[in-house]
Automatic annotation (TrEMBL):
<comment type="pathway">
    <text>Cofactor biosynthesis; adenosylcobalamin biosynthesis; adenosylcobalamin from cob(II)yrinate a,c-diamide: step 5/7.</text>
</comment>
<keyword id="KW-0067">ATP-binding</keyword>
<keyword id="KW-0808">Transferase</keyword>
<dbReference type="GO" id="GO:0043752">
    <property type="term" value="F:adenosylcobinamide kinase activity"/>
</dbReference>
<keyword id="KW-0169">Cobalamin biosynthesis</keyword>
<dbReference type="InterPro" id="IPR003203">
    <property type="entry name" value="CobU/CobP"/>
</dbReference>
<dbReference type="GO" id="GO:0008820">
    <property type="term" value="F:cobinamide phosphate guanylyltransferase activity"/>
</dbReference>
<dbReference type="Pfam" id="PF02283">
    <property type="entry name" value="CobU"/>
</dbReference>
<comment type="function">
    <text>Catalyzes ATP-dependent phosphorylation of adenosylcobinamide and addition of GMP to adenosylcobinamide phosphate.</text>
</comment>
<keyword id="KW-0548">Nucleotidyltransferase</keyword>
<comment type="similarity">
    <text>Belongs to the CobU/CobP family.</text>
</comment>
<comment type="pathway">
    <text>Cofactor biosynthesis; adenosylcobalamin biosynthesis; adenosylcobalamin from cob(II)yrinate a,c-diamide: step 6/7.</text>
</comment>
<keyword id="KW-0418">Kinase</keyword>
<dbReference type="InterPro" id="IPR027417">
    <property type="entry name" value="P-loop_NTPase"/>
</dbReference>
<keyword id="KW-0342">GTP-binding</keyword>
<keyword id="KW-0547">Nucleotide-binding</keyword>
<protein>
    <recommendedName>
        <fullName>Bifunctional adenosylcobalamin biosynthesis protein</fullName>
        <ecNumber>2.7.1.156</ecNumber>
        <ecNumber>2.7.7.62</ecNumber>
    </recommendedName>
</protein>
């Protein structure tokens, strides 16, 4: 595995799948979190994910500067798990960052990464069309980002109901 792109819906098992694939790599592991503790429920989710990882894991928080975090993590770990791209995208949108420039920087870092890398993301385009402009923009931007990262990855997997389907 060089770069693994894992996509699925909410509670599909995508994070668990990506973590198990990265844990198969010997040595130190990096977990790059894009989530931010903005409310008690999110804090509980983050705590659950932290408890699920063992001492081999080095944690990084990158709500905005994901390419930089990947660059740093590969100097300190033998494999990297990023969870997740859609939270990163929403963080960028909230602070009005240039999304195309951010995606290009991420793509460059993904292609240059020297250690196995797993990218987790949500599939958001298979549901109904959102009723507001911001939600439609997020859905469209997530679709573009997911296509770009899937193309850059050496392997792409769709996870649904805990089952993995290899796409690429």
């Amino acid at each position: 595995m060089r770069t693994l792109f894992v996509i699925g819906g909410a509670r599909s098992g995508k994070s668990r799948y990506a973590q198990s694939r990265i844990e198969a790599v010997p040595g130190a592991l990096a977990f790059i979190a894009t989530a931010q503790e903005r409310d008690p429920e999110m804090a509980q989710r983050i705590a659950h994910h932290r408890a699920d990882r063992g001492p081999r894991w080095i944690a990084y928080e990158a709500p905005l500067d994901l390419p930089e975090a990947i660059h740093l993590a590969q100097t300190q770990a033998d494999a990297i798990l990023v969870d997740c791209l859609t939270l990163w995208l929403s963080n960028l949108m909230l602070v009005d960052r240039d999304l195309d420039a951010a995606a290009a920087a991420l793509e460059r870092e993904v292609l240059q990464c020297r250690v196995p890398l797993a990218l987790v993301t949500n599939e958001v385009g298979q549901g109904i069309v959102p009723t507001n402009a911001l939600a439609r923009r997020f859905r469209d931007e997530a679709g573009r980002l997911n296509q770009r990262m899937a193309a850059a990855a050496s392997e792409a997997v769709l996870v649904t109901a805990g089952l993995a389907l290899r796409l690429k």
